[in-house]
Design the sequence.
């Protein structure tokens, strides 16, 4: 199905791509790659569950869906995500024990095992996929088992992800070296310059995450992957497209098959809808503030929403707030609430002064792309470290969702808007984003097409993948060398003893004879 | 002196570059970067010693030289290189003790210290360089102390190199992780797939090279660098431009400021001089063979040269042989000897069937660029591993300079020319070279201009540079944690003992009372 693709002296024809995306923001950015693949004349099939929350609602423009049935309904998954958000945003009003038991219930309720089996044990779907003879599988590990599917179809695999479990996946299965002495691990509370107590804590977190990762994969995934393991399978990935870049991540070494494409989804802004543009223009010289806590947050905490609304009423800027659910009572006239906002285009608007964000990576990269300083109110997972990085670089003020008072938000907005250092620092990060040898999206597409052209990228794959952990750390070699040295010392000592005994014996005999 | 350079929304103006090149092949490839810098309107100054063997003979086209005097004459250095070549190519006829003593004499005779002092303690030269206000220093570590000079001038440093001392420099000073379990070290006799005995040997070589590297830099260089060390100084490099790429190197992880530009000096072929083209065309369908043992080899071993000539007389191809010095007596009519050949253009000629090479990296990359299979006759240093890699990939036959007989060369040429697998494998490596997201030379220039634009590339620099070795390996953390655990166990035991004693005492007292 694959002809040749144009690069240098190669000719163009279309390849055949299977995409296994994640949901929510994961789909929003995978979608950008899908669109670009379609644009470049490739045939794209998106594999999606019948209970999908976001992916299946996309218009099939230039690509097609392949559905697989799961025994659950969409609303059950939807309820699961809501429940997860609830657990986090109501964390403060709950005891730790209660929170932990809710998380465990949630995990019991929907296991990776179940989705996985629904996908790979569906003979009809697998038959159709086999017949399609794909050239490459693009896979976001948000959805389990895509790597196993690629392996079963015998198609080269490309992983698309940002970070998984404090780099545990990339480190353990992808052979990315990650040394806890200078690579802050999840949950990150430090930068890459750590003092001694911080390094102790980071080291312990590193050990803990590694243990949890091994336990979870061993219990949840490995039984499905028999006779190999999850790590063996995903470790076969030809290329790791990482949604990260060094203007917004701590530099660390990586194998040659890691390609950093952070911010590839960003594009120059399109014009706003007429009424929105009018509202934005009405802000005059004060400009506007954009506020969004991400697509998962649905106003689960009304008390907080009222605080936000009160604070926003006190600033001179106009505010565009993406919020689904109930309207806050304290909403001021300068603030408009929308179910959905064209966030990328708003961030690129010249009147935009600041962005209040939960710290999702898509939004942060869009703010970086357009150089808009941040007020960060992280909710969960990697959002804390996302905001922390920007705070450490002097491009964001970070607020605590649970402890935040009205005045804190007013002050934070005043700081990032009126203290020029925030804009300047954000512009510096933005310049680094735009100053790369190739554009991130072109880089992603190049390597996807490379894998299709060359049926893989084996020349970029480190041999560490074929070593056991004790071979990797040369422990077998060390034991052998110590044994050799030990044996040598033992023989030396024995020989010396023997010689001394012989001498003594002779001397005694001589003495006796005398 | 630096305006802004065009990339994306940046404007163009010219930067000011100081180049500290190496001699011989090192200069030949640095020269390509110099030419491209000139082409792009940058002002280039090449720093060179008055006793330079090759650099100072270049025509100052678009760039200028800055000389510094050394107390030696050019012929002394020239004699040193000849002596070094002699030591290697006559190695077989000499005892090991004699060889080692010759190497030690050579090292005593010309110390890095001497060249270094001549460069940085020359106040006139340093004054001129300071006034020039350079934007970047391009430095090949073949010449000592360029990094120290950049530091003294307070100008960002870019290192241009292939490999130094079995990756010891990159590993120890550049923070490139290099694990002996899958990274073959110098002198390489294996690939990156090693069995147990090979890993033992590789591990020992790794330890040995590390020790020698520390000793040599400590004795030869560190005294000059006081109060910092050589590693501190060269470790400040913003970018490491490595003359290597994964089509011709074993993949391994690297920090984000390492950029692999191997083969950047290769270009499409230019037409040959008329008489040479006539000779090439006279070969008919048999085609031609190109033969060069590099610019340092000057026919030091006449016996071998006669063997070469006899062998070349027995093949149907026409041969172009780059050889200085005495002509071999056994030269056949199909072979022409030249003082100098346009090697790049000849390798790109459609009639070229094979390349007999000593395995210098420039020549190998040219052969890769044009897809010409190799007969490798390595002489010294990295040439063995260069050829070994190509042999392992099935693109070269390797011969032993000292054990080679006439028939071996005839057979080797017959194999690489008439067994199609050699051409096919070489073409595969060649395709990987041409199938990159950007051209290697553009990549090099991008990062040089990036460093000029941004006064460095700090965002690509791993924090490992700021850690001591025991911090890097978390040894201080481990000791601390062990101490805590130890103290805890000690206190537990003591407490238990105390409790038991208390219990016993009470029981005894009770018993007594009873």
Sequence:
């Amino acid at each position: 199905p694959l002809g040749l693709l144009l690069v240098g002296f190669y000719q163009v024809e279309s390849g055949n791509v299977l995409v296994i995306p994640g949901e929510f923001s994961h789909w929003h950015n995978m979608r950008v790659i899908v669109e670009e693949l379609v644009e470049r004349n490739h045939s794209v099939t998106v594999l999606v569950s019948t209970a999908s929350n976001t992916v299946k609602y996309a218009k099939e423009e230039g690509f097609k869906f392949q559905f697989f049935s799961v025994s659950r309904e969409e609303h059950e998954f939807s309820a699961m995500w809501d429940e997860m958000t609830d657990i986090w945003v109501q964390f403060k009003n709950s005891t730790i024990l209660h929170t932990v038991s809710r998380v465990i219930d949630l995990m019991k309720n929907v296991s990776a095992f179940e989705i996985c089996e629904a996908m790979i044990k569906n003979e009809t779907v697998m038959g159709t996929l086999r017949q399609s003879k794909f050239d490459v599988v693009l896979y976001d590990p948000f959805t389990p088992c895509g790597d196993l599917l690629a392996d079963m179809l015998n198609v080269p695999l490309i992983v698309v992800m940002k970070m998984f479990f404090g780099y545990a996946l990339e480190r353990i299965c992808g052979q990315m070296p990650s040394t806890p002495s200078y690579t802050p691990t999840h949950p990150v509370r430090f930068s890459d310059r750590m003092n001694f107590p911080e390094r102790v804590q980071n080291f312990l977190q590193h050990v803990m995450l590694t243990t949890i990762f091994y336990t979870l994969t061993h219990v949840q995934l490995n039984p499905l992957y028999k006779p190999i393991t999850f790590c063996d399978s995903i470790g076969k990935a030809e290329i790791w497209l990482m949604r990260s870049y060094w203007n917004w991540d701590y530099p660390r070494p990586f194998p040659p098959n890691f390609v950093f494409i952070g911010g590839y989804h960003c594009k120059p802004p399109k014009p706003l809808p007429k009424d929105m543009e009018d509202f934005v223009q009405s802000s005059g010289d004060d400009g506007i503030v954009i506020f969004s806590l991400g697509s998962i947050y649905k106003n689960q905490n009304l008390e907080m929403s009222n605080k936000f609304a009160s604070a926003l009423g006190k600033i001179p800027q106009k505010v565009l707030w993406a919020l689904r659910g109930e309207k806050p009572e304290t909403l001021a006239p300068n603030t408009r609430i929308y179910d959905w906002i064209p966030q990328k285009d708003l961030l690129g608007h010249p009147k935009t002064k600041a962005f209040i964000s939960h710290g999702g990576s898509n939004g942060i990269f869009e703010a970086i792309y357009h150089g808009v300083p941040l007020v960060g109110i992280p909710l969960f997972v990697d959002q804390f470290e996302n905001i922390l990085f920007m705070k450490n670089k002097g491009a964001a003020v970070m607020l605590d969702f649970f402890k935040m008072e009205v005045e804190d938000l007013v002050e934070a907005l005043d700081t990032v808007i009126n203290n020029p250092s925030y804009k300047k620092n954000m512009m510096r990060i933005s310049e680094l984003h735009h100053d790369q040898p190739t554009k991130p999206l072109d880089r992603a597409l190049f390597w996807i097409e490379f894998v299709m052209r060359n049926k893989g990228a084996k020349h970029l794959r480190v041999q560490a993948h074929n070593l056991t952990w004790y071979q990797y750390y040369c422990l077998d070699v060390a034991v052998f060398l110590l044994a050799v040295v030990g044996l040598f010392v033992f023989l030396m000592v024995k020989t010396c003893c023997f010689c001394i005994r012989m001498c003594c014996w002779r001397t005694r005999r001589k003495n006796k004879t005398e």
